[in-house]
Amino acid sequence: MKGRLWIQSPLAIMAEGAEGGIVVENGRIVELITAGRQPAAPVDACFDAGRHVVIPGLVNTHHHMFQTLTRAHPAAINKSLWPWIRALYPVWATHMTPEAFRLAVRLALTELLISGCTTTSDHHYLYAAGLEDAMDVEAEEAARLGMRITLTRGSLNIKDQQGVISPANVVQDDDVILADSERVLLHYHDRSEGAMTQVALAPCAPFDVTLELMRETAALAERYDCRLHTHLVETRAEAEFCRSKFACTPVEYLDRCNWLNPRTWLAHGIHFDDAEITELGRHGVGICHCPTSNMVLASGMCRTCELEAAGVPVGLGVDGSASNDNSNLMESVRHALMLNRLTYGAEAVTHLDALRWGTAGSARLLGRDDIGTIAPGHQADLSFYKLDELRFSGAGDPLAALVLCGATTADRVMIAGEWRVTDGMPAAVDIEALIADHNRVARNFLLSV
């Protein structure tokens, strides 16, 4: 989009001093307009946002996009994490073809985008034969939609033995993992302001990767100045595993791995004790709260308020679409509000807290200070919602209504100043064809293994 665009007089906007709208130029927000004022300089076009609630584009900091092919899978429903993953690992390892993976990624990204998500990461650790270029596929599909992505190169290097559950055909040797991690970093990791593609390194979890791989990965991240990501203490069993196997707490294990630093953000982070939370805050380690999957699998409640009080950055993730079972980040914002209010009380967590976790909080986890907030100089990543459905009728506070009344679909989405969703539809996807193709390959995942 060329020239200066005035997004004019929104119904509501998640930014102080912008009641009259914002001006976008060259992919950035250049001015906030107070109520009743005009832009400081002439504009080339106006967009009437009088029917829209405008928020920063949502930022998703934990996902497993390949899992869209096993939503509500009969072998895995009504199970907690360990029975759930034992049921699905053989299915994924057997049936995940390159075509299936690409369609899974395309569908997940499209669903995220329509929900109002403008930046995502994907913790991909499943490298069965034919998926060696998984990071390239994700980069291509994100570019096709015009979305920002942090390619999160996951890894597994311990085979199914002594209670560890990774099938042998998705486990890689350390030299393969590290070589491909470096390849992906060299090709895709853009550290410049406004980057569309960045890279993080992400061994899956302490129970399925070695201490040596964790340390080598940390060294590589230091060399290339990228983020680190892993699962940690999603369940009590994982915390107990760490204590029994390594004779230390999970946070002490992070320290042994050279991961206890601001580069690191952790998925779930449910079962930390008070001392561990203090240490996480002292070292600037972030936590991705995944409320929907935590409820579906009954894993527990992330201690968000204690974490933030200790100085821990908190963001949101949809998590895998086989434990959510969707890729709708706005829905996860609502679930975060509800679950945290149930835990801490109605006055302790507001709709603005939940929206902040899904925007500025998540941006901080990815190490980005150019997205997640509507402010001059920030990237023009914006999501626009209408309140014209039955569920919103009678709503008095438009921003609160997005969360309390359950918004799920953005009417418009802008990324880097470009419209990527218009009238609720993405510009670059045939939705009907995508659903048909995705369902066709998903049927293979119902076959016995």
From TrEMBL:
One of the Pfam families matching this protein, by short name: Amidohydro_1
Enzyme class, UniProt record, top EC level: hydrolase
Domain of life, per lineage: Bacteria
Domain Amidohydrolase-related stretches: 53-419
Keyword Zinc among record annotations: yes
EC number(s) given by UniProt: 3.5.4.32
Database matches in CDD domains: ATZ_TRZ_like
Keyword terms of this UniProt record: Hydrolase, Metal-binding, Zinc
GO molecular function: 8-oxoguanine deaminase activity; deaminase activity; metal ion binding
Claim: Chloroplast is one of the keywords in the record: no
Database matches in Gene3D superfamilies: Metal-dependent hydrolases, Urease, subunit C, domain 1
Stated family: Belongs to the metallo-dependent hydrolases superfamily. ATZ/TRZ family.
Protein name: 8-oxoguanine deaminase
Organism: Rhizobium pisi
